[in-house]
């Protein structure tokens, strides 16, 4: 939910190409017209045998790969012992973890139907706009295969086999396993609530996983861990706010569900920010430049390629509702950035190269700039018409 700050609403820019030479890099619908004309020129029999290949509804056409100088891979190799001692210790043993079932009616108990009835009574009191945001959050969590893939694109830390024993790989798999509980819990809760169109939601998840994501981290673990630091904090903020709203609406059990997920996100944020803190210690110049690079490109949200088969601006619509409800706002984006600048003591970095100093200045001045731009955008913003969301049977919600 990056509002106006995500690359889908601002043209992609890429530092390896001059902006005038880059072809259109916004995510585009697949060229279906081309396919149709190919088919019409063949005989009916040929046409039958020419099966239309599957193409995702959202594609990112120009991407930068392997931007980290290969010699820096050694840094991540040399940090394996440190990661074992400092990062793997932030994982919780499975036996001590909560599981979705701890927060859901027990299907094996006699009281199951009563518990479901009670859950549905509570759910009736929650407004549609809240459900739109909760569904969007759940869909984002459910696209987890994409995020594990993303981590495994990163040079020097990827899981080379699928069961690699390096601390980086152990972290990625266990992180994924912890995260898997988030989508699972929200999905089951929403299914039982009876308030949402599960088939439309399931279609959106399938489309989203099929489209993937492009966080523009370029196989570069500096960029990758800065991105995940930002994202874990962003999801902590989102789930924390849906918990707060559920409490205000009188649904303590739903508040607990969102709150327990937010707590996981916080622990994950601690891990990723610690990795980046270590990179600042070893390579302050490279790390501050990576931070500035990521912020110049803007942090795109993981579900930025979201589509339900119908609404071409689904992600923007969902983001607008999240912004209006105060679940995730442009102000949060600026706050997260400011938090990270403080967390990594960016202002205090010394001995930087001229490029490093430029990057330092850029990120330190960015939060107030974002806030000013946002205030101006808010002042100009006109209220649009309410939009039907397929996730809630086309009931309309104000943006
Ligand atoms: Fe999560
Ligand atoms: Fe997370």
Tell me the strand order in the biggest sheet. 1-2
C-alpha Rg, in Å?
22 Å
> Proportion of β residues?
under 5%
- Strand tally is 2
Oligomeric composition of the shown chains: single chain
Principal-axis shape: globular
Low-confidence stretches: 1-42
N-end to C-end Cα span: 13 Å
Instruction: Report the helical percentage.
Output: 55-70%
Characterize the largest beta sheet: strand count, sense, and whether it forms a barrel. Answer: 2 strands, antiparallel
| Topology order in helix (H) and strand (E) letters | HHHHHHHHHHHHHHHEE
Tally of helical runs: 15
Q: Report the average pLDDT across residues.
A: 88
What compounds sit in this structure? fe (ii) ion
Helix/strand class: mainly alpha
Binding site for Fe cation 1: 141, 179, 182, 265
GO cellular component, one term: chloroplast stroma
Pfam families: FA_desaturase_2
Protein name: Acyl-[acyl-carrier-protein] desaturase
Question: What descriptors fit this protein?
Answer:
single chain, disordered N terminus, iron, 399 residues, lipid metabolism, binds fe (ii) ion, globular, 58% helix, mainly alpha
Briefly characterize the structure:
The chain has helices at 32-40, 44-49, 73-78, 80-86, 112-124, 128-142, 144-151, 167-193, 198-211, 221-248, 252-282, 284-297, 314-325, 330-343, 354-380; strands at 387-389, 395-397.
């Amino acid at each position: 939910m990056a509002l106006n700050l995500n690359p889908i609403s601002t043209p992609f820019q890429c530092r390896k190409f001059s902006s005038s030479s880059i072809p259109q890099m916004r995510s585009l619908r697949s060229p279906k017209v081309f396919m149709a004309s190919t088919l019409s020129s063949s005989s009916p029999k040929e046409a039958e045998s020419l099966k239309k290949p599957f193409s995702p509804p959202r594609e990112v056409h120009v991407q930068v790969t392997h931007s980290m100088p290969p010699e820096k891979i050694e840094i991540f190799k040399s940090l394996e012992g440190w990661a074992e001692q400092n990062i793997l210790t932030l994982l919780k043993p499975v036996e001590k973890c909560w599981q979705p079932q701890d927060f859901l009616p027990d299907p094996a108990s006699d009281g199951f139907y009563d518990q479901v009835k009670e859950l549905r009574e509570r759910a009736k009191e929650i407004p549609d706009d809240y459900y739109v945001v909760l569904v969007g959050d759940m869909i984002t969590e459910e696209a987890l295969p994409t995020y594990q893939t993303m981590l495994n694109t990163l040079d020097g830390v990827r899981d080379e086999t699928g069961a690699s024993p390096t601390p980086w790989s152990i972290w990625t798999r266990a992180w994924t396993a912890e995260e898997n509980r988030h989508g699972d819990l929200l999905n089951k809760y929403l299914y039982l609530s009876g308030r949402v169109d599960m088939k439309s939601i399931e279609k959106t998840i399938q489309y989203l996983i099929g489209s993937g994501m492009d966080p523009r981290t370029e196989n570069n673990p500096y960029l990758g861990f800065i991105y995940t630091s930002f994202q874990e904090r962003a999801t902590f903020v989102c789930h924390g706010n849906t918990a707060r709203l559920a409490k205000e609406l009188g649904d303590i059990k739903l508040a607990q569900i969102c709150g327990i997920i937010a707590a996981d996100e916080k622990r994950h944020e601690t891990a990723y920010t610690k990795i980046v803190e270590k990179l600042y210690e070893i390579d302050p110049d490279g790390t501050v430049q990576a931070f500035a690079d990521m912020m110049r490109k803007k942090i795109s949200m993981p579900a930025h390629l979201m589509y339900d088969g119908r609404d071409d601006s689904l992600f923007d619509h969902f983001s607008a509702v999240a912004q209006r409800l105060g679940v995730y706002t442009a102000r949060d984006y600026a706050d997260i950035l400011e938090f990270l600048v403080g967390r990594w003591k960016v202002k205090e970095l010394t001995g930087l190269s001229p490029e490093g100093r430029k990057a330092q200045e850029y990120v330190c001045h960015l939060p107030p700039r974002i806030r000013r731009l946002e205030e101006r955008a808010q002042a100009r913003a006109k209220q649009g018409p309410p939009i039907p969301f397929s996730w809630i049977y086309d009931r309309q919600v104000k943006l």
